[in-house]
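User: Some background: our group keeps a shared notebook of sequences we're curious about, and every so often someone picks one and asks for a predicted structure to add to the entry. Today it's my turn. The entry only has the sequence so far, pasted here. Could you supply the structure so I can complete it?
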Amino acid sequence: MATLNDLRNRLMQNEEIKEAFESVEYNRSRNIFKRRMELGLSQRDLADKASVTQKTISRIEGGDPGIRQTTLIKVYTALDLKEDGTPPAKEYVVHQ
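Assistant: Of course. Here's the predicted structure to add to the notebook entry:
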């Protein structure tokens, strides 16, 4: 029985598909979706928090390359992500 990884490996042999999976837009969409899920937000919740439309969040998560940087920054800020879309470093408190 083929696994999800087997399917991904077969798909990645296609250069167009490989390019899409390695694109900035795809990685950005995955980071935003993952963070939104971690925070338990719907697309509507995130849109309201970032002062954008739900359709914009859908476009971002769909990998649309036509999203303005200013819009992305609003979304990153609402998700507490750095400007490059990555999560901030975790801070740990050491009790002595």
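Suggested note for the entry: The CA atoms of residues 25 and 63 lie 5 Å apart. The mean pLDDT is 88.
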